[in-house]
Design goal:
By secondary structure, this protein is mostly beta strands. It is built from no helices and 6 strands. The mean pLDDT is 90.
């Protein structure tokens, strides 16, 4: 068999490492051709929405855009959590809730730096009814305050 763009030889006969037991490149992988003295090396394709190796913070959300949780190098970014990806579907990334850092912009999202309810921002980082919250940023937590004039007073010493 003559080497081609679909041929590889990584020095073993295992499947699942980018190069099949019959020396073909597996879907979701790219491999160097190798030479008569060096084996092919294979690596996952970043940004294709397929993830085989979830170790060391690796992720693949189907793009190579920084700032959305999974970096252009397919590594989970700080203050984000990426889950659900495997060899058939891409990762979904979410801002880590409760760390006091807001990584995304939404009028219904808040992060006040804790996982308590009844303080304006829920344990799931949603704005509670009767409250208004600043968005916050990557370095500052959301600040929540009761809405004045709605006829509701929240007793912060006795959670409702």
């Amino acid at each position: 068999m003559l080497p081609s763009s679909t041929y590889c030889d990584d020095g073993n006969s295992r499947n699942g490492d980018g190069c099949t037991s019959t020396c073909g490149i597996e879907p979701g992988w790219t491999c160097t051709l190798g030479t008569s003295s060096t084996a092919s090396t294979c690596s996952e394709i970043c940004g294709d929405g397929i993830i085989f190796d979830k170790t060391n913070g690796k992720c693949d959300d189907g793009n190579v855009i920084d700032g959305d949780g999974c970096s252009s190098r397919c590594v989970t970014e700080s203050n984000w959590s990426c889950t659900g990806g495997d060899s058939t579907k891409k990762d979904t990334c979410r801002d880590v809730c409760g760390d006091g850092k807001v990584m995304l912009s939404s009028s219904t999202y808040c992060d006040d730096g804790n996982s308590l309810n009844n303080d304006g921002c829920t344990s799931a980082c949603g704005i509670e009814t009767g409250w208004t919250c600043t968005l916050g940023s990557a370095t500052t937590a959301s600040i929540c305050s009761e809405i004045c004039g709605d006829g509701i007073i929240y007793d912060k010493t006795n959670s409702k």
